[in-house]
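Self-study notes.
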Amino acid sequence: MRAAVGAWTAALCLAAAGRLDAQADPRLVSAVRAAQEGQSDSARAVVQRLLDATPPTDTLYPQILYTQAMVASSAGDMRRLLQRVSVEYASSEWADDALLRLVQMDYATRNYDGAARNLERLRTDFPASSLMAQASYWAARTYFDSNKPQDACRWLADGMAKAQTDVELQTQLGYLYQRCDLRSDSTAAQAPAGPGAPAAGDSVRDTSRTTAAAPPANAPPSAAPSPGAPTPPAPAPTASQPPAANPPTATSAPPAAAPPSRGARPARTVYRVQIAAVGTRKAAEDAARKARPLGLTVVTVQQGNLYKVRVGEYPTREAAQNAAASLKAKLGGTPFVVSEP
């Protein structure tokens, strides 16, 4: 019983997120507003009277059904009405919205398979829907939570390319897309090296000039031969005494450590705040234009199909986190800290 109440509460919260201005008829707008103000019974009565007075063939009918779902008294009634809109009135302008609400309800109740079915139907039947960018957010959460990261990343990439004018949604999608970046980095780090390739993280130095000419570190000093003097042959080893690579001497010392490379310095980490991750260069420039008046350094980094807009240059993560909180108040969205070498 408690689980059912929790699921219904979550469904109501998701339904309340529906856009009030999406309703075209003023009577429906009034009914939705009444429900939001706690007058649910009155709202349902108004919608039911309007539904009874409207022929099912009227273009207003699916909108009334959708509104009736938004003010329904139970999750079961809400689901039934949304399914009617998406199936019986699939050609109406409310069918894609009904499918997205069904996705949200399924996600709220952890019915990830049901959410995935409605998401793929939304993608197949309504590819040009204005809700596809918003649907990609719910698709990413659904597929990440059901352990299908490839599907989640596919939806995120499409969503960020379509959410060009919604900076807040771009930021939310970019935040989720970090999991795709981390997954790619992890896969590359675990990839087996080819023959002769250095291990991940190893630096590569060119030693071709010194390998042949460098003598052994503990070889004894020898006098330079006089010009034209023949080189004495090395004594042949006996059967009981194998040749020694480095003959010991009375004053031999352990080999000296090689001097450090002149250019080897510890990398300095720079912390920035990412304010957007978008699919086009124009959208990235729009986000950067909003940040420039703040007097901060703006950097746009292209990674795969994304343009990531980052601001500032902070010496510590704590300083960047403080800046992120300030940027959230000034720019909105969900800024977060990233580190760069």
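Second protein, same conventions, sequence then structure:
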Amino acid sequence: MDNYLILKTENSPSYELIDSGEGEKLERFGQVRIRRPDPQAVWKKSADIREWNDVDASFEREAEKGSWKTKPHTPAEWQVPFDTITLGVKLSPFKHTGIFPEQYQNWKWITERVRKSNKNIHVLNLFGYTGGASIAAALAGAKVTHVDGSKGTVTWAKKNAELSKTASDSIRFIVDDVRAYVKREIKRGVKYDAIIMDPPNFGRGAKGEIWKIEEDLLTLLNSCKELLSPDPQFILINGYASGYSALGYGNLLQDMMKGHKGGVEVGEVVLVESGAHRILPAGIFARWSVM
């Protein structure tokens, strides 16, 4: 882990971080401009307040809850392409859009790792959410098992796979608690050549099972080690608001992959403002690969 990487998502026709500051970010997904909270944006805003107010949708907090305020023309859903991946955007009740554009460079990395493996690899994506990483792997030629505890989110991921024109048999979608699923796969003797995971700080499985990262992550990684094929290709762990450092995730991966030929990279995923050219921290990652 000699290099600490900063993976940048720059302005593009698909996505733009227009401005950020004072606990908010101003973004464009395709042609739709939105305004929503971001606790990492602790600095002053650069853009004029009129630009901040000229949005199609804004997320406004009310005590412990929040809601979107939209203009009449704002679409309920729309689509945004990221290279060969096409993702559907919706304004969720929890300020999210279903897309994490900061993961763009990791999607490219996954694509490269699958293509360079020179074999038919099986990828397990845990906490797969709306499927960006699963689709990237599938379009590169991998067979993917996508697991998430939310039925609605898995339905969203299936739709994204259809929008991206993935082969119908390239992704297997599973609604389940990831820990329960991994245990069953171990008993079945199933092996995977690559594992991706995006564990939340706190969450619930398909049957209401409680997930707490500080209690469950190490156990999950130990179980995942039993799922690895004799010739694993890559592992990627993402983190959001967990309170952990990328270096901590890197140490976990180094322990997990001890004895395997390969290396660990760690760092942050960030969004680059199109105006002030500041970078907005958006998450951490650690990744191991054989190449």
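Instructor comment on the second fold: The chain has two domains: 9-75, 98-289.
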